[in-house]
Design goal:
There is one protein chain. By secondary structure, this protein is of the alpha/beta class. It is 46% helix and 15% strand. The chain folds into two domains: 178 residues, Glucose-6-phosphate isomerase like protein, domain 1 (Rossmann fold), CATH 3.40.50; 116 residues, CBS-domain, CATH 3.10.580.10. It has a five-stranded parallel sheet. Strands 6-7-8-9 form a four-stranded mixed sheet.
């Protein structure tokens, strides 16, 4: 490692350390204004509108997206676009969150006036308690007075990191208060790896499992295995409950005189099953651990087979 690369690494560490220290200061500085901001958000009948200019605007977009994905309807409104018609997106019943490090961003003037005109609650996030923005706020959240991460103190770094963290804190606090569950989260994240991780067995299973009675001869049982194409068949008892499963391994073990047997004599009794509300990832882990390709799905608290899940169903859906 050259001396210049060592210096650059030291700079990177200094920046991260300075921002981490700022976040610790921010956490210690939270007071009842944070709770009052949450009260405003929870009482909102409309949407949460997040706005900011420049780097604050980029942070505002992310905060709005986090609110929306965790069950709080929200969107971003650009201050300049607001002055040219987008103020129509901000209505009574909404709550505004406005970001500005200085609190004096001129492009925010029309949004602030609109909020006052229509009595729209406004949560301000700024570093200056005596700023114009804070003067218009229903609730103000003041960032701690800490330097930016650059040595010149001019590049928005530490301030934007704190603002983003504060937005996350508001969103997560709302999420936990509303008992937002992984099921709710999955509704807003149906695609990609995250959506695949949250898929449940019932989302992927075939709801007509291959089943035969334990008294059925193996000739007809083999026909059913071939017809259904899963390579396995569940075996049910006289009450219709799942008693066992027949796999290719069971067929090989009983190859001598196979056609003289009944399904109940060849099956593996009490097979491993899974419930429909289990995560598909859990089912895939069971199949990998047991080196099997299918799992029969049983209704909760019963041995009644209601579906079958194949390893390929999980892989096609992106479950890993």
């Amino acid at each position: 490692m050259t001396s210049s690369s060592i210096d650059l690494t030291a700079t990177g560490r200094r920046v991260i350390r300075r921002e981490a220290e700022a976040l610790a200061r921010l956490g210690d500085a939270l007071d009842d204004s944070f709770a009052r901001a949450l009260d405003l958000l929870m009482a909102a009948e409309g949407r949460v509108i997040v706005s900011g200019m420049g780097k604050s605007g980029h942070i505002a977009r992310k905060i709005a997206a986090t609110f929306a994905s965790t069950g709080t309807p929200a969107h971003f409104v650009h201050p300049a676009e607001a002055s040219h018609g987008d103020l129509g997106m901000v209505a009574s019943g909404d709550v505004l969150i406005v970001l500005s490090n200085s609190g004096e961003t001129p492009e925010l003037a029309d949004i602030l006036a609109h909020a006052k005109r229509f009595a729209i609650p406004l949560i301000a996030i700024t570093s200056r308690a005596g700023s114009t923005l804070m003067g218009h706020a229903t609730v103000g959240l003041t960032l701690p007075d800490v330097p930016e991460a650059c040595e010149k103190g001019i590049v928005p770094t530490t301030s934007t990191t704190m603002t983003l963290a504060l937005g996350d804190a508001l969103a997560v606090a709302l999420m936990e208060h509303r008992a937002f569950t992984p099921d709710h989260f999955r509704m807003f994240h149906p695609g990609g790896k995250l959506g695949a991780r949250l898929l449940k067995v019932r989302d992927l299973m075939h709801d007509d499992p291959p089943l035969v009675a334990e008294t059925l001869g193996m000739g007809d049982t083999l026909l059913e295995i071939t017809r259904r194409g899963f390579g396995v068949v569940g075996v049910t008892d006289a009450a219709g409950d799942l008693a066992g499963i027949i796999t290719d391994g069971d067929l090989r073990r009983h190859l001598d005189g196979l056609m003289l047997h009944k399904a109940g004599e060849v099956m593996t009794a009490n097979p491993r099953t899974i419930g429909p509300d289990a995560l598909a990832g859990e089912a895939l882990a069971v199949m990998n651990d047991r080196k099997i390709t299918c799992l029969l799905v049983t209704a909760p608290d019963t041995r009644r087979a209601i579906g079958i899940l194949h390893v390929h169903d999980c892989l096609r859906a992106g479950v890993v």
